[in-house]
Every structure is written in structure tokens, then in C-alpha cells.
Amino acid sequence: MADAALDALYQEIILDHYRRPRNFRPLDGATCTADGKNPNCGDALTVWLKLDGDRVSDVTFQGVGCAISKASASLMTEAIKGKTRAEAVALFEQVRALVTGEAGTPARKDLGQLRALAGVSRFPMRVKCASLAWHAMKSAMDGAAGGGAAPSAGRVTPP
Amino acid sequence: MTSDALAPRADFPLLAAAPDLVYLDSAATAQKPRQVLDAITHYYTHANANPHRGAYALSGTATQAYHDARARIARFLGVADADTLIFTRGTTEGLNLLATAWGRANVRGGDNIVVTRLEHHANFVPWQQLARATGAEFRIAELDAAGGVDLAMLARLVDARTKVVAFGHVSNALGTINPVAQIVRIARGAGSALVVCDGAQAVPHLRVGVDTLGVDAYGFSGHKMGGPMGIGGLVARRALLEAMPPYQLGGDMIEWVHDQDTTWNVLPHKFEAGTPNVEGAVALAAACDYLDALGMDKVRAHEVALTSLAMRALAGIPGVALHGTARAEERSGVVSFSVADAHPHDVATALDAEGVAVRAGHHCAQPLMRALGVPSTVRASFWVYSGRDDVERLTAAVRSARDRFAIR
Ligand SMILES: Cc1ncc(COP(=O)(O)O)c(C=O)c1O
Questions:
Q1: What residues of chain B lie within 8 A of the CB of A10, using their CB?
Q2: 20 to 30 Å CA-CA from B331: which of B52, B140, B173, B325?
Q3: Does a structural domain hold residue B48?
Q4: B377: enclosing H helix or E strand
């Protein structure tokens, strides 16, 4: 049982994004950015966003982290590119429900590859890892909502 | 499975109930022998009352139990004057007591405080913050190439304005046993520093004679030596404790409370405000009995053998790098390591799925992790119930974790 849960946690998609993270670089011309830190394990990553009006026209990240936090960040960059702010935040809510195994939230088909994060729900101690980049993304957007031309910066430590 | 463990697994109810569990996080907290659990039950069944307070016989029984426990634990620690053993919640509270009560009264701007790069946050942050609050300089002795404290640098840092030299007897993150005698000699060389030693990782593993160490104060935690959580202590020189202002104020620690002033009770009560943890003290005394019956020299020999076995087995796995000294006899039962391509948390999760419980993280030693250049490590730690079979299961699980996360 334990091994099946472990295989579900570290399924191929997750390991692939961990080994070859997508959009893993700073972003020239980013309009907002935020750091995510998990002091417990030393994980630290930065998320950069380029907002075109209300739409995420590009998103990247960089940092050190475990397989779960890196893969989740990598999958996130692919999932939210082209989405509006509201859509990106709604996706975060769905991912949060998915990784915490919240009752009554079957993995929705439209989550696409993000469904690979479902295995996290069996490992409550790893929920923080899976949500780190998402918190940073949201914090970057919240900072950007304040307006201003200069890239806004935030820092989050997930609860 | 038969085991060459020093203590029978059957003595430890949690381990007996989980025959497949490979518990390798004893440096965080040890499992408890039945004798300790029985002591708690016995105390509440036969002796429970608020000590020092009632005129009735039962309160006297509780008071005596608390007093006897202090004497027993002091004897285990090689402390002749049992009243200089102050019970605290653990090492953290003991060190905070010193840094607050002694520190605020004695450290001034222009003074300095010296610690080492190996320290647990409990022996780092209280001194760092004391320095900030008083305007003293906070100095850190770095590690040498072999991974121990750089004693030459320590000697350069200690000067006539050094008010505190605080160091760990044994590092929790790496297991390194520090050369206490040399450090004390250096600390005493330049002036009149208070010499403070964090014994949290030493007392469970070595025969420690606190009186012979030459330090001014020594902290320890009961839960790492088979006792319950919430009890530990600070041992300090009598003159120091008598000169120091109290830490917490309230019941038991007073002598006379006048309308506008109060006088303090004698040692140890002056530093034990409020209803004490009698249960904890009594159970910790039972843990001392248990360890003495095993024999601390045997505990030490067992752990050196196991640590050396684990170091060889882990170092033999391609991609595994060990941290800390290469000499097992300079370590307590701790092996800290990294696995190539794999994050420590992923390694710990994978090991856990195979029933192997290890710690992954910064081990409450972030300043040390920065110096090692890693965000965190995996740490396996042994105690009296650990055996070769545990090392074998650990090694096999690390191998498969290495394969799972390898970036080919
Ligand atoms: C070296 C060292 N110092 C201090 C502490 C703090 O002990 P406690 O949490 O029991 O107060 C620990 C335990 O984690 C430790 O290993």
C-alpha cells in the first residue's frame, strides 16, 4: 500500500518536471515577481509573471526545492500561461483542493496534467511543498494589483 | 528478526507494537522504555499531590518523590550538589533562563558573545538576541576543514570583553563530539566569560560528568534520553545561580512576599516558579536507572559500532555524500547525509514508505546548513534499541530512493 501511494506521489509526470523543470529561468520584462520560502526544508523559489492587461502572457520560476515543489511550480507555469488573473487564481483553488484531498472535489478533467499532483493528498506533510509556487504566484499578482510601472515584489511563507 | 540491539525492543512499547518500524530519529526524541511509562503511572497512582504545599502526608510523598528524582538525576549526570540542578522543560528553556536572567544582568554594549557554527538554534538564537538587545557583539567560530569547530579561530574570537562562550557538547545535526576540555581552556584563557555547554545530544549517548567538565552551566533534555517530554534541566555553579536574578516569578520561588518587595527562595526553588513537573522528574529518574542498568559505556560502544557500520554502508552507495567528521568515534550515533539529485524531503518520504523514519531538514541549525552549502540534510540517528538490521533496512531504502530520483 505504502509503495503504491509513493508511486502515485512520484509518478512519471512529476519526476519528469522535477528533472527537467519547464520555464526555469528569470523572466525579462516581468511585470511582477514574488519569492516563496519554506523555512522548514530550506526550499526557496521565485516566480516571475508578465501580465498583459489582465492576462498572464508569460511566467517563469527558479529556485531550489524538492521534487514536489519543483514539479508543481513547473506544471503551474505551463498551466497558467495565457490565463486571466481570475482563471489563474481559480486554478490555484482547484489545485489546493486536489492536494489537500478536500472532500467533494474530484480531480477535474480540465486540470489536465495538474491532476498528477493528486498523489500529494496522501502525504499531508507535503501539501506545503505542492502549494509553494502557487502562493508565490498569487502574491506576485496581489502585489501587481497595487499598480505602478516597476515590477512589484512580494514574499510568501505558506501557512 | 533477531537484533544485536543493546536494549530489547520489547522494553519499548511503541517499538514492540510496530515491529516493522525502523526508528532512526532518536536524536530528535528517543522512544521510552516501559519502566519510564510505569514510573508515570505509579506516580499518579500512589504519590500525586502538589509538592511543597500541603501539610498532609500525601503532599509530603510527592515532595519526597520530586526531591529523590533530582538527586537520582544529579547522580547520573555526575553533579555532586543536586540543588544546582534546576528542572526546566528542556535544554531550550534552560538556555533561555541563562541568557535572560544572567545575560540581561551582566552583558553590556561593547562586550561580546561567542558561539560556534555547529549550534542548535536553542544555543544560538538566545545569545544572538541577547547581543542585539544589549549592544554586544555576536561572534561565530567557524568550522575547520575536518568539520569540527576551528579552535584557532575560537581562540582569536575570545578576548577580555567576552562575556559568554556557548558551545554544544555534541552537534545534533552532524553528531560531532566537541573537544570540551580544549574549548573550556580557550574560553577561560582571555578573561571571565561565562562558559555554557549544550548537553542535549551528549547526555543520552556518553557518560557525562558535568562537574568535571569545567563549564559554568550545562543544559540537557530528558526526552532525548528515554524520559518524557517537558522535563530537562540546567546545571550551573552554585555561586552563579545564587548571584543571578530569578527567571520566572510566582509560587514556590519566593521566600517572603511583602507589599512592595519580595525575597527569593533557596536553590533550586528560586528558579522553579509554579507547580513543578513532578511526573516528568520521577520518570526521568527512571530513565537514568534504565540507562545505568544498560551501562553508559556499553551504550557508547554500541553506538560507535553502529555508526561506523552505517557510515561505511552509506558511503558505499554511489551518489551518497556524508557530512561531518569521517571518524565514527568522534561522533554520537548520528549520520547526516545527502543523496545526489534527490532532495532530503523526498528521500525521507521515500524511506518512510518503507518503514524507515529519518529526519530531513535543517535540524534547527540553519547557520550550519549555510556553511555546509546545503538547504537541508537527511539524518539517521541511533540509540540503544537500534541494531544492524536497522542499518541494513536504511541502506536498502536509501539505494532505492537514489534510483527513484536519479537524473539520468
Ligand atoms: C543540540 C541540541 N540543543 C538543544 C536542543 C533543544 O532541546 P529541546 O527541544 O528539548 O529543548 C536540541 C534538541 O532538538 C538539540 O539537539
A1: 346, 350, 404-405
A2: B140
A3: yes
A4: strand B377-381
Q: Contact, A6 vs A32, CB < 8 A?
A: no
Read off the pLDDT band of A150 (50, 70, 90).
very low
One domain, residues B21 and B47: no
Asked if residue B4 is part of any domain, the answer here is no
pLDDT on residue A147 = 46
Inform me whether the C-beta atom of residue A4 falls under 8 Å from chain B C-beta atoms.
no
Is residue A143 within 8 Å of A30, Cβ to Cβ?
Answer: no
Instruction: Give mean pLDDT, residues A79-85.
Output: 96
Assess whether B115 and B228 both reside in one domain. yes
SS3 B20: coil
B338 and B321 housed in the same domain:
yes
Determine the pLDDT at residue B2: 53
Asked whether residue B256 falls in the same domain as residue B330, the answer is: no
User: Which of A6, A7, A24, A121 to mutate to probe the B interface, most B CBs <10 Å?
Assistant: A6
Asked whether residue B3 is assigned to any structural domain, the reply reads no
Q: Which domain does B53 fall in, by range?
A: 38-291
Report how many domains make up chain B: 2
Q: Does A12 touch chain B (CB under 8 A)?
A: no
What percent of chain B has pLDDT above 70? 99
> Alpha-carbon distance B302 to B6, whole Å?
7
Query: Among the three residues B291, B322, B356, which one is the final residue of a domain in this structure?
Result: B291
Q: How many CB atoms lie within 10 A of CB B319?
A: 16
The answer to whether B196 and B162 are in contact (CB under 8 A) is no
A109/A104 Cα distance (integer angstroms): 15
Read off the DSSP letter of residue B102.
Answer: I
Identify which of B311, B323, B318 has the alpha carbon closest to the alpha carbon of residue B401.
B318
**Domain identity same for B139 and B273:** yes
Round the average pLDDT of chain A to a whole number and report it. Answer: 88
> How is domain A3-156 classified at the architecture level of CATH?
Alpha-Beta Complex (3.90)
B98-117 per-residue burial string, b: 16 or more CB within 10 A, e: under 16 = bbbbbbeebbeeebbbbbbb
B308 and B176 within one domain = no
Residue B367 belongs to domain with CATH number:
3.90.1150.10
Q: Which residue carries 549517548 as its cell?
A: B205
Using CA atoms of B124, B125, B126, B129 in order, give the dihedral in degrees to the nearest 10. 120
- The pLDDT assigned to A39 comes to 82
- Dihedral of the CA atoms B363, B366, B367, B372 (nearest 10)? 70
Residue A47 Rama label (left phi>0; alpha psi -120 to 50; beta): beta
- pTM of the predicted model, to two decimals? 0.93
Instruction: Among B263, B291, B319, give the residue marking a domain's end.
Output: B291
Lowest mean pLDDT of A143-147, B144-148, B268-272, B387-391, name the range: A143-147
- For A:72-91, CB contacts with B below 8 A are none
Q: Tell me how crowded residue A18 is: count the other CB atoms within 10 A of its CB.
A: 25
Complex ipTM: 0.87
Cell numbers found for residue A134: 502557487
Residue A101 to residue A88: CA distance in whole angstroms: 20
